[in-house]
Amino acid sequence: MFSILRPYIFSLDPEVAHDLAIKSLKFNILPKSIFNVDEEEMLETSLFNEKLPNPIGLAAGFDKSAEVYNSLFKFGYGFVEVGTVTPKRQFGNPKPRVFRLEKDQALINRLGFNNHGSEIIFKRISNNLPDGFLGINIGPNKDTLNKEEDFYSCLKKISPHAGYVTINISSPNTEGLRDFHDQKELEKLLIGINKIKKENSLSKPLAVKLSPDIDDNEISKIIELIIKYRISGIIVSNTTEINRQNLNDVKKNERGGLSGQPLRDRSTKLIKKIYNQTKGKIQIIGVGGVDSGKAAFEKISAGANAVQLYTGMVFKGPGVVKDIKKDLISILKKENLKKIDEAIGINA
């Protein structure tokens, strides 16, 4: 069905097509059974002590305001992450702000955390509890005077309905956000987050989403702080601001974060570096260029406990999850592995 509709979908502005997809998913009419695969029990795993049917997740950015997560679970995702959620409702940056790079199987976006705000999103999830493991990605408003306080505010508001919460310090589209990769700034933020958790008796696992553009000498400092302040996971990685020189599409120099195939190797290399320094102390979610079983296996065998995709679904449609699961099962059999967990880190 997607292959038939794709020429029409791709004739639309990317953001118009996305809005149309969200509206369609609100009908929630597709039966979950059509996305099932044989022998999926080989893909069963756990993330943050939660049992999952498979390690394939939907990355934050698709369901920004938590409108259709239960429809998305039907596509066969093992988990779904919504957001980025900010304390106040936010329009984001001026349009146009999303660009398809069809020749490169990539997207560039400079959306700027457009979402309905934490109050509306909290009520929405309260009235429609998730059918699966739901992550909620949080960040600061663009015009805030204190980014740390925005993180604290969101954490308190949305934690009750989250399976885990992602602290997004890595979007290139909010000025100053990546400053939190600095050791002093990150430590200050994590101290405050732990204080909020303690004061409000919050026990949900936390993950920090990193930029793929960090220098090698920053990695060990970031890991040290994440372990010290008992953060459960690292998401590797957000979109990149660099890596444009080998792209073919005429839109390659649009300002914003680049995702999809050009990010694939960069994020996998970063996963390996982090895995080799953490050795299972921190769970890793791998993101960037995941659109096939081979790409998912690359990240898992590099050290990721689970993977996420978004751009892959844009180019290949909702059936991509089913295809990835089937491919992964075939790869496991070829590698003489009985369970997906046996693959974690084997090529790191």
Number of domains: 1
CATH architecture: Alpha-Beta Barrel
Helix content: 25-40%
Biggest sheet details: 8 strands, parallel, barrel
Strand adjacency order, main sheet: 3-4-7-8-9-10-12-13
CATH class: Alpha Beta
Nearest-integer average pLDDT: 95
Structural class per helix/strand content? alpha/beta
How many helices? The count is 11
Radius of gyration: 19 Å
Any idea what the shape is?
globular
Taken as a percent bin, the fraction of beta residues is 15-25%
Under CATH, the topology is which?
A: TIM Barrel
Gap between N and C termini: 38 Å
Question: In total, how many beta strands?
Answer: 13
The CATH superfamily is identified as: Aldolase class I
Q: How do the SSEs run, as a string of H and E?
A: HHEEEHEEEHEHEHEHEEHEHEHH
The low-confidence parts are none
Describe the overall structure.
The chain is α/β, with parallel strands linked by helices and 348 residues long. It has a single domain, classed as Aldolase class I (TIM Barrel), CATH 3.20.20.70. It contains 11 helices and 13 strands. The chain has helices at 2-11, 14-25, 69-73, 118-127, 147-158, 183-199, 216-228, 264-278, 293-302, 311-316, 320-334; strands at residues 45-47, 50-52, 56-58, 79-85, 98-101, 106-109, 133-138, 164-168, 206-210, 233-236, 257-260, 283-287, 306-309. The strands form 3 sheets. An 8-stranded parallel β-barrel has the order 3-4-7-8-9-10-12-13, surrounded by 4 helices. Helix 5 (147-158) links the parallel strand 7 and strand 8. Helix 5 runs parallel beside helix 6 (183-199), helix 8 (264-278) packs parallel to helix 9 (293-302) and helix 9 crosses helix 11. The longest helix has 17 residues, at 183-199. The radius of gyration is 19 Å and the shape is globular.
